[in-house]
Design goal:
It contains 9 helices and 9 strands. The chain has helices at about 75-80, 85-95, 135-140, 140-150, 205-225, 250-270, 285-295, 295-300, 315-320, and strands at about 5-15, 25-30, 35, 105-110, 155-160, 230-235, 275-280, 300-310, 325-330. It has a 6-stranded parallel beta sheet. Strands 1-2-3 form a 3-stranded antiparallel beta sheet, with no helix packed on it. Helix 2 (about 85-95) crosses helix 4 (about 140-150) and helix 6 (about 250-270) runs parallel beside helix 7 (about 285-295). It starts with 5 loop residues before the first strand and ends with a strand.
């Protein structure tokens, strides 16, 4: 086998109880040809040539809840520029159990770097009671994308995370965290309001913390009324970076404080079954995550940790020391 040209190999073995001859399928991909069916594959309990053996273990290891991608506004906008037949073909190829079979997908809570512009689900300043909370924008854009996918895969699971809280909850009162130093400052954030690491960009005052817990709660409830159950929430996308797009920095002890004293108790009070994940962590320093997992108030509510980008480097340590927690790979290069 030319390892330079063949980069994907799958061996599918279908075994029926009491049947000695099993059906074996061999599929492989090369740079130019995908998912080709191999020929001449035979099953043998005692192969003649040991150099051609692939040993299959029946030992159970980790359980995978699902695999998927991210729903976003620009993705839906791009699909809507296509002829209906082509758009449906792409949706089918992504979500059909017969094709890519995406089963566990992410959605943003408010704006992301793939939104059409900055927005949140409540942009009315200091609306601590969330009177003006609304998912109307999502109904017209993001939810259309999700519901088309649900038609193809009714069992599709959804998890969510904010790239940024409402701007009025941030210390710089802006969706971005960093200055856009291009020829044109496209995000409108002045240099004076850039968030510095390792500070927390969220206003750590009781009124804002209570309001943000209510914001998460109303989001989960509003989406479920639309037939979209939120399986889990990660508290903040990439809290360890100051981005030019919608973003917010968090120190781990502050995020733990929010979870343990505000969000967790609020979910508990409202009987919200959505799981709380500490994430999505984008640094490989395990201590960042351990700070929250060792916090007694927060840890009782944290069901898992989400890692992306450099955060993958912390997974071995966290998995070893906290084996009861779910590990979620939330984004990758």
């Amino acid at each position: 086998m030319n390892t330079k040209s063949i980069y994907t190999v799958f061996l599918s073995v279908i075994i029926s109880a009491g049947v000695s001859a099993q059906k074996v399928e061999w599929k492989y991909s090369t740079q130019d040809n995908y998912w080709k069916n191999g020929k001449g594959i035979k099953w043998s309990d005692s192969p003649e040539k040991t150099g051609e053996v692939i040993r299959i273990s029946d030992e159970k290891a980790q359980y995978i809840d699902g695999l998927g991608g991210t729903f976003n506004e620009l993705g839906w906008d791009a699909l809507c520029t296509l002829p209906e037949e082509k758009k449906n073909e792409i949706l089918f190829n992504l979500f059909s159990p017969k094709e890519s079979n995406y089963t566990y997908c992410r959605i943003p809570i408010g704006a992301s770097d793939f939104a059409m512009n900055f927005y949140s689900l409540n942009d009315v300043v200091d609306d601590f009671d969330m009177i003006n909370f609304s998912i109307d924008r999502d109904r017209h854009i993001l939810m259309r994308y999700i519901k088309e996918a649900q038609k193809i895969h009714p069992g599709l699971k959804i998890w969510a995370s904010p790239w940024c809280p409402p701007a009025w909850m941030k210390t710089n009162n802006h969706y971005a965290s960093n200055y856009d130093n291009g020829t044109v400052n496209r995000n409108g954030l002045p240099r004076e309001k850039v968030l510095e690491l390792p500070t927390t960009g969220f206003k750590m005052q009781p009124g804002y913390l209570d309001a943000y817990a209510l914001y998460f709660t109303k989001f989960v409830q509003a989406y479920e009324k639309e037939g979209i159950k939120i399986e889990a929430v990660n508290i903040q996308n990439e809290p360890c970076s100051t981005q030019k797009y919608a973003s917010c920095t968090w120190r781990p002890e502050d995020m733990a404080y929010f979870i343990g004293k505000f969000l967790g108790p609020k979910f508990e009070k409202e009987n919200i079954q959505t799981e709380i994940f500490f994430g999505t962590i984008n640094r490989d320093n395990p201590q960042y995550t351990k700070t929250a997992l060792d916090d007694p108030a927060a840890s009782k509510y944290i069901k898992g940790v989400g890692f992306q980008w450099d955060g993958k480097g912390a997974i071995p340590t966290i998995h070893k020391e906290y084996p009861h927690l779910k590990m979620m790979h939330t984004e990758a290069e």
